[in-house]
Amino acid sequence: MTDLIRKTASELAALISSGEVSSVEVTRAHLERSDAVDAAVHSYLYQSPEASLIAAAEADRARAAGEVSSPLAGVPIAVKDNLATIDAPTTSGSKILQGWQPPYDATVVKKLRAAGMPILGKTNLDEFAMGSSTEFSAFGPSKNPWDLTRIPGGSGGGSSSVVASFQAPLAIGSDTGGSIRFPGAVTGTVGTKPTYGAVSRYGLVALASSLDQIGPVARNVLDAAMLQDVIAGHDPHDSTSLPESLGSMTAAAKKLDVKGMRFGVIKQLAGDGFQPGVAARFRESLNLLAAAGAEIVEVDCPSFEYAIAAYYLILPAEASSNLAKFDSVRFGMRVEPGEKATIERVMAATREVGFGPEVKRRIILGTYALSSGSYDKFYGAALKVRTLIQRDFDAAFAKADILVSPTAPTTAFKFGDKIDDPLAMYLNDIATIPANLAGIPGISVPNGLAEEDGLPVGIQLLAPAREDARLYQAGAWLEKAHEEIWGKRMIDFAPELEVN
Known about the structure:
This is glutaminyl-tRNA synthase (glutamine-hydrolyzing). The chain has about 500 residues and is an alpha/beta fold.
């Protein structure tokens, strides 16, 4: 069954549909892979093999009865542990929620179950999705399967590493400032942030409600497109959910055509200050697009210079509000401070023990930014910058159909290199943050290996809001062009894990 774990989700779906293999066989193969490697990679925070196999058996029964619920029926998937699951703990990578089991499923989880997709487990993340490396998970970091001494990105490092290590063909992530796309870039996987509102956030443990978006993690663009088709759609439980359908992402990924499309190279993200290997791969992809008949133009987005500063005021402000609910009273951890245990002291003691250093840092920053006397100076100014960034995107999309940049400035860095330097950590998201501030869709597609270290590089594609299909069309073409040059898929370059 080892061959099954290296197949794409679309390939597995075809095999299951034809009856060549069963969902139980595919699910068991991935569970056995986890038994072999996850002690070293630490992608999962929770697994229930029995429940996974029961769901797979039900998918097989439904297919035999002619009750096929989706094109991905029977294909197993992993879910980031900030999504509510009624049958499994949801910790959001934090001690304050350790062992908490929700009384309901997130809308995305409901859609996965309805589509007949067995859930393999809950994946690791930086605490409350605050981080770029999973080093801020209360339960220890996930590792990059390409090099276990390096980070798999964050906050969704568990979802990226579970796919890159062949423990799951698909995963669900959440992206607040690049937490799907950055991990995709450094692990050689595909990660998509859909248009804000295209996928329901109901049941997602909120970090910053105006920025968060749930999206697919996959091994290729077609798989990501198929998964977005499963999880997208209007949800009356989410007031920000788009009322209209954005069309079939799967159909867009199968077009494989870029002739006549205009690709805008963002002047502020054109490679200056990026690792040489990252910049070199980016230029090569631009040449591939131009040779195929695409038009390459330069676009100027001057407000991007202030995007990180604005983001790290808006996000902490929203996070300080969203995390106020963890007060030791309603759910989660409770710490009794002693004999004189007032509600204020219990709350303070619980939050002191339950929250990690990065969460505390952002709560303090956000509370200060929202305080009287600071609101207009900091938070209000950040909102004005956000508007300028949105206007820059509007102007850029008047000249280009798709905007392109490297996904991240470097390849995966080593554990410990940036954990004590928050500003250096925050700069990892320099290329991904603007899309969240504007609510537009973005995708990171594998873009080769950096010559200096042999590690994966990603290229980011951005489109106007509601035009997610453009990303899948162009991303699938780039992926195919790369595979023809390299002779195999990017993920197949990954070295075999050496584990005990």
